[in-house]
Amino acid sequence: MRSTTTDTAADSSPAPMGRRERKKAATRQAIADAALRLFLERGYDAVGIREIADAADVSTTTLFKHFPVKEALVFDEDAEQETRLLAAVRERPKGQSIPAALREHALTARLASAEVDARFTAFINLVAGTPALRDYAQKMWLRHATALAQAIAEESGLAAGDPACTALAHFALEAPRAAYGHDDPRQAITRAFELLEHGWSALAQGGA
Q: Are residues 28 and 63 in contact, defined by beta-carbon separation less than 8 angstroms?
């Protein structure tokens, strides 16, 4: 699902796309938008690939060039989300801790998207109620957690596969998801990352 907010970690003024790239991006977005609209209206399993292609005014061949499997239509920002997540760690301001950088990413990107997008609750319910989407989302989550753990290890000078990096990545990704049901999700995320910050600081001091 495409966010309606701008992630501050992604505001690095990327080079403008050429005409062909813009056209491809527009086509991809049209397909993803059509798919999500149909899925929310009728349910994931009730909508076929050809219907989505027709709604987006493209061929099924074109659809599969952008989305190799049906589940990917729902998670059209998979790669972009991982890129922004890793950038939050690698491009954080000097002196900012990794947990603090991930907290800001969670508050400015993930939570903000949920707060302003009226379709977000429907999207969450769609994924939760569809086994194929739940499985795909879990695999995506694990890929992001693995990539984040590697970035944390690189940035902190720890060995690849260090369990502390794996744990921080896991909990950093889980905190926003766990906070959605709270009366004040922003405070819940902040509190969760305070715990992560304290634990990470203690680890860093112990290894000094």
A: no
Contact 159, 146 (CB under 8 A): no
Helix ranges (H only) for 93-206 are 98-105, 112-116, 120-128, 131-156, 163-179, 185-206
CA pair distance 185, 65, nearest whole angstrom = 37
The residues near 52 (Cβ < 8 Å, ≥ 6 apart) are 31, 34, 35, 38, 63, 73
Rounded CA separation 63/32 (Å):
9
Count of residues in the chain: 208
Rounded average pLDDT per 10-residue block, the chain, 208 residues: 42 64 93 96 96 98 96 93 95 95 88 59 89 95 96 94 93 84 84 86 60
Vertex 106 angle, CA 101 and 110, to 5°:
145
What is the b/e burial string over 10-41, where b = at least 16 CB atoms within 10 angstroms of the residue's CB?
Answer: beeeeeeeeeeeeeeeebbeebbebbbebbee
